[in-house]
Amino acid sequence: MESIKFVLDRDPHEREFHQAVSEVVESIQPVLDKNPQYRREAILERIVEPERVIVFRVPWVDDQGQVHVNRGFRIQMNSAIGPYKGGLRFHPSVNLSILKFLAFEQVFKNALTSLPMGGGKGGSDFDPKGKSDNEVMRFCQSFMAELFRHIGPDTDVPAGDIGVGAREIGYLFGMYKKLAREFTGVLTGKSLNWGGSLVRPEATGYGCTYFAAEMLATKGQSLEGKTCLVSGSGNVAQYTIEKLIELGAKPVSCSDSSGYVYDPAGFTREKLNFLMKLKNAMRGRVKLYVEQYPEATFVPADPALGYNPLWNHKADCAFPSATQNEINERDAKNLVGNGIQVVSEGANMPTTPDGVNIFLEHRILYGPGKAANAGGVSVSGLEMSQNSMRLNWPREEVDKRLKTIMKNIHKMCKETAEQYGAPGNYVTGANIAGFVKVVDSMIDQGVV
Ligand code: NDP
């Protein structure tokens, strides 16, 4: 077994990054054994080292005239198969370790989409929550005042992630355009009026649901009638719930960092509209949902419990769509104990390694984030294509392409897992398929 000691020694404090690297290294062992060239080329040492890390000061002024300073980052991880591509996250927890784990995962995810995109990620420890629109605008402008010199439509194309939605992309794009004196597809997730793609907002949630449907189809089943647990209440969660309703499933939960809502009757279109208004327009907390729909219950978050009761409800499918490490070993055991059949990850790395092992041991249909949530970056890739061609595809066209991409990712993961003696293990399939494509491209391009 390859050691990741060199990663631990070089960056001892990057816990999340170590977690992401060890999972990949474990999966790709048979590939390394079969291809001695990879060791000679020090491919592992090269792929874990970002091509470039940019860290910068982001000063901004609040509505009272007080100056604040946040830290901005962009990790340009790997450009072997295309320009760097990956979201920006604005959340107080953001640090180098979290962004490196996200950038590392992004490299493999983007390779799986079959679109020409390298991997990157960025963001800031800025918290948009509770800030006025003007404060968010001033922050975004200051952030872009530095970032703009490092990105471009053929260099690095950021998008949204936690805390970065349509509003933030708008402010970031406006500042980029002013500084670069160019109207180009330098960000994805843009609004429709100025270069965005139809279905981009929906893409991650829809794609994750399509991936779950593909996994279920291998057992001759569908999502129809299935009870589904969803966490989060942001972009990914909202459109996961929307697609589940459309496919006849019954989504029964959502959450934010304050706690979760459980609605045993299931979300309807009307309830989802309320949730969307609450989260997107009012920027409120999920707790307010139960005031509108008293048949639902709100359970406040309690980290001291050591497990999340959201994952202890009886359900057929789970769609973790909030953040990393939100399902631990105990949560995974609770899900399995309650008869879960499918886990399709909308969030990035939402399950801890011990939790993943529980799913694999019990042969759950488990779709890891880098495969199951690749729909978002796929439609970002389609947005880039449309920008280059200076045209917009209709909604049906984009959704059809998204569906085909998710189907192909599922097929690639499934077949690669079988080829390497791990049938049904989508973790092995996704890691190996993504890895081989990227490292073979790196070798073609020499030691750079
Ligand atoms: P949003 O900011 O729209 O929503 C995030 C949701 O997760 C909110 O409900 C938020 O609650 C909750 N959340 C965030 N951090 C925490 C935390 N530490 N503890 C508990 N809840 C938390 O982000 P997205 O929906 O875009 O992203 C969700 C996940 O999906 C992330 O892991 C992201 O990396 C991943 N992803 C997103 C893609 C996209 O296209 N947007 C593409 C692929 C993956 P609160 O409001 O209280 O903070």
Low-confidence stretches: none
In percent, how much strand structure appears in the residues?
5-15%
Q: What is the level 1 CATH name of the domain at 203-367?
A: Alpha Beta
What is bound: which ligands? NADPH dihydro-nicotinamide-adenine-dinucleotide phosphate
- The total beta strand count reads 13
Cα(first) to Cα(last) distance is: 27 Å
Number of helical stretches of at least 4 residues: 18
Strand order of the largest sheet: 1-2-4-3-5
- Look at the structure and name the CATH superfamily of the domain at 203-367: NAD(P)-binding Rossmann-like Domain
Mean pLDDT across every amino acid position: 97
* Biggest beta sheet attributes: 5 strands, mixed
Rg value: 21 Å
CATH topology of the domain at 203-367: Rossmann fold
Task: State the secondary-structure class.
Answer: alpha/beta
Q: Which percent range fits the helix content?
A: 40-55%
**3D shape:** globular
CATH architecture of the domain at 203-367: 3-Layer(aba) Sandwich
Structural description of this entry:
With 448 residues, this protein is of the alpha/beta class. Among the domains are: 50-182, Rossmann fold; 203-367, 3-Layer(aba) Sandwich (Rossmann fold), CATH 3.40.50. The chain contains 18 helices and 13 strands. It has a five-stranded mixed sheet with strand order 1-2-4-3-5, with helices on both faces. A five-stranded parallel sheet has the order 7-6-11-12-13, with helices on both faces. Strands 8-9-10 form a three-stranded antiparallel sheet, with no helix packed on it. Strand 6, helix 10 (235-246) and strand 7 (250-251) form a beta-alpha-beta unit. Helix 9 crosses helix 10 and helix 10 runs antiparallel to helix 11. It is globular. The two termini are 27 Å apart. NADPH dihydro-nicotinamide-adenine-dinucleotide phosphate binds next to helix 10.
